[in-house]
Every structure is written in structure tokens, then in C-alpha cells.
Amino acid sequence: MRRGITATALVAALALAATACGSDDESGGGKSSGELSGTVTWWDTSTVGSEDKVFKKIAEGFEKKHPKVDVKYVNVPFGEAQNKFKNAAQAGAGAPDVIRSEVAWTPEFADLGYLAPLDGTSALKDEGDFLEQAAASTKYNGKTYAVPQVIDSMGIFYNKKIFKDAGVEVPKNIGDLKTVSKTIKEKTGKTGLYLRGDDAYWFLSFLYGEGGDLVDASSKTVTVDKPEGVKAFKTVKDLVDSGAAKTDATDGWENMQSSFKDGKVAMMINGPWAVADTLAGKEFADKANLGISPVPAGSAGQGAPQGGHNLGVYAGSKNLEASYAFVEYMTSVETQAQTAGELNLLPTRTSAYSKQAAVDSEIVQFFKPVVETAVERPWIPETGSLFAPLVTEYTKVLTGQTTPEKAASATGDSYRKLLKGWK
Description:
Blueprint: E1 30-32, E2 35-44, H1 51-65, E3 69-75, H2 78-91, E4 98-102, H3 105-111, H4 132-135, E5 139-140, E6 143-144, E7 147-152, E8 155-159, H5 160-166, H6 174-188, E9 191-194, H7 204-209, E10 215-216, E11 221-222, H8 227-241, E12 245-246, H9 252-261, E13 265-270, H10 275-278, E14 290-294, E15 307-313, H11 320-330, H12 333-343, H13 356-360, H14 362-372, H15 387-398, H16 404-418
Parallel strand pairs: 2-3, 2-4, 9-12, 9-13
Antiparallel strand pairs: 1-2, 4-15, 5-6, 7-15, 8-13, 8-14, 10-11
Helix pairs in contact: 1-12, 5-6, 8-16, 15-16
């Protein structure tokens, strides 16, 4: 998940009424004498300046394969894409033919009727090759509404030079994290950890590490306000209060990345989507200086969340056949191996891991077992909406505006209002 990464601007103009999208009459097309033609508009939500360049290049390869198809590439800031797509789909104008959807958005979009079912289409070529946990988020009410593009989880990124200068080892649990951060501060003057405070996805490793969860979908029970959830809020608050971590309530992604890339902090929690941008920092001109290890365990164990992105096809697209073909191309073994090699992103196809590009990526090889044991979120339509009330309380805890107990209670109350009839 590129969880809330804020891009600076759209790569292409995104005024919904002005964007030439697949739902507009002018972009119609499809098969002409068996040959694909027309326009496919793709909203990509990847990181501007690193990932977007690779994905745009790959999309251009589809045009070479299908010269009568024009792929209109639009990079949409991740934090804006969910609502922009829903607004455009509801209006019936301006929606793209294909959207790169965070895994939690897929069941919501499907429930709203905005995605085309893909069972039996060319988009789902070799469906059995997809990792089971990656495919789970694409299903809703017995149908498949997206194809998994990348899967991910989180680890702790650390600056090997700072660790060497401080004479410390990589922390294995929260207690170690506090001790290591204290020593780093004493020996180097650097802060131990930058803890992103404006995105609730960064809270999940602590919640799962204490044995908690957001909800229990099987019993329709809200669980975030149980004792485990309170303890998780206490854990992150203590990291900040003790000086082991610094945080920021705004521009969290940019501040976290720049602090780590410039060597102002020794550690950050992040995922494979951040590797390309991180290696562009001055501290990592020597790539070997970047270390990655599992997220420090909580009292109940290590609990990294499962994330990733799917490609969905807009139900109102005027060019479904070309859109299906584009999704198949962008999620093929060859394409996934390429993104693994160039961006260190984890494939969703089992067979892609045997390709040399994936084998040669230390990042992919590190995160693969992490992903296999990562905690799945509930794949319900409301999953994507669970983050808004959680991030509000998470930020308030980190900035001292509320207590862990009140934050857990307020989040639980918000969830019960959202999830009608849940306990």
C-alpha cells in the first residue's frame, strides 16, 4: 500500500469533466476485425518520481503490442484517488477505464457497482498462479472484481552506518527499539525512529503486535477498542514520549522520507514501495547502507499488515476488451518480474518469483516471507473507511491531544456507527 503517500501534483490534468477517459464517447473502441483499438485511460497511484516512471514505461509497452490502442496514463495522488474515482463513477463521467486500487478499496468499489466483474475475461489469465493472500482482496460476493498487481507488507528500514557508529544491533521487539534509540541518541545525537503519525496504516504493526485488530468480520464485532487496542495506542505514545521516536501530524510521508534519507533519523517503518525513493537519498548513495529487518514485535508477537494494489476495470468503460487486455498485460509474469527488478515490488504471481529479476532483488527476497505471514485486513466494503476515524485518534495520541483509552473508545464508537448492527 502506498498508504497515503502524497504526490505533489497530477502528472496529467485531472479535472473530471475535462479528462479524456474511457467512459466518454470519444474513447470508445474495442475489437476491430479481432484487433484491439481505441483508448484505455489508466489512473496510476504510484509514487511520483520513481515508481510512476517505470509504470508509465511499461504501459507504453502495451501500446507497442497493440498499436491501435492509445493508453492515456494519468498519475493520481494516492490520497485523492479513492474519492476521485467514486465521484467520477457516481457521476457517470470522467472515470478511468482502469484504476490502480489499494487492496481495501476493491470490495468497496465492487459493492457500489463501479467495477466490472472479471471472471471469464482475459484479465484473469492463469488465475491459479496468483498468491492466495493476494487474490483474497479481489473477491466480493463470489465474483472477482480486480486483479492483484503487487503485494506488500512492512519492515523496519535502518541506516547501517548510524547503527555501526552507535554500536547497536537491529531491535527485535519494542523494548529493544527503545533501548537502541536511546543509545543512538547518546552516541550520535540522532533520533532513533521516525514514526509516521498522519496515516493509520503505520499503526497496524503495533496493533497486530499486541494481538489486536480493527474488527472481527466473522462475528461482526468491533475489536479496536478492546484492551489490545488500548495497549497498542499506549505503545506508540510511549515511543514518542520517551524520545525513542519523533513524529509529525502533517506531511508525514515527506518528512519521514527526507529525515531518513538525510540521516537525521536512524530508522523508519516502511514497505517495498519506499525502496526506490529511499535509495535516492544522500545517505544511501551506497545502497549497501540500507538495512531492512522485520518490524519489532509487540507483546503478542510480530504483526506486519498485508497491503498491496489491484487493477480494476470501471464497469462503465466504453472499451472493456482493451481494458481487460491491459490489466492482463500489467499483471503478467513478465511485467511483475520487471517491476520486481526495477522497483523491488513484490509480485502477486507465484511463478514470477522464479524469474531472475525477482531472484536477484534482495528486497523482494526479504519481504516474500514477511508477506506470507502478514495479517490480512477484513475484505469488507467498509474496510477502506475504517482508516479515517483511526488516523484521527492515532494522530491525537501521538501529539498528546487525547489518551490511549479515549482514542480506542472513540475509534470503536465511530466503527459501530459505520458498521450498522455490529457489536
